[in-house]
Amino acid sequence: MEIKYNDTDITDMTRVRRVEVTQYLYDHLDTMTISFDNKTELWTGWAPQIGDRIRVTEEYADSGNQYVMNIRPEGDAMILGCAAVKKVHAGHVHQWEKISFKQMLQHLADDNGLSIEYYGVEDQKYRAAVQSGENDYKYINELCKLEGCFFMIFDGVIKVISNEYLKATPTSDFTLETSTARLHDNEYFTGCQVTDGQTTGKAGSDTGDVAYLKTEKRLESIGEANRFASNMLAYYNKKCKGGSAMADKLITQLMPGSKIKLTCEYWTDQPIVISRVRHDYLNEKTKIWFYLEA
Length: 294
Description:
By secondary structure, the protein is α+β, with helices and mostly antiparallel strands. It is 17% helix and 45% strand. The chain is built from 5 helices and 22 strands. The relative contact order is 0.14.
């Protein structure tokens, strides 16, 4: 394991008590918790600062550049809570006219000093859009879900990936065998309705279990509303069938978006998509959260 703090290799400078890196496919930024032995008060003297950069690598696993968000002395340990961005703003207000989906994301990336990459994402044009005080990452997340994609931030790059792009990615030959799987197997939603209070879009069937979303974004047409409803139906159905599982070793090649097979008491060689992964470097354990594609 290699640890770099503000580009200085500190791997052998102090004993590490805990390293947990959690990476997400959607809805959350990547995080890391790292705990250092502070019996000699090395870290007290070093005085880590909010915004300092830290990175941990282990074989295939890479936390990417993470930034200190909080510092907590605890007994004879110094605990740093980190995230994949240097700062999360409390909220911004923006009003855009005649702008596209990708142009909006570019503005938000520029505001946060990030670059952006797209994978299978179609651009969409809006007559107007308003950001009403949400922090930028929450706003990006909600907009991406409506447009049928998701984003991750790694090493200063926003990676925006469409559901269709991920769906077209082949499942690997890797099979995780576990006896610790905790599963949920709920019925899929048959339909979805999205409304802004005036215009309502629909996807799927009105009968059965229907999901509903009231969005802050003004829906400009029935076509746009229906597109959002279709994308949100796919999003909600990701949460219906899946679960979590613990591997009895550190499997560093597993990451969000990995498509593997799971064998447990309930399933045999079941194709799954990893939506979240937590690597515990010191205890050499990997925990995954996953879903089945509808």
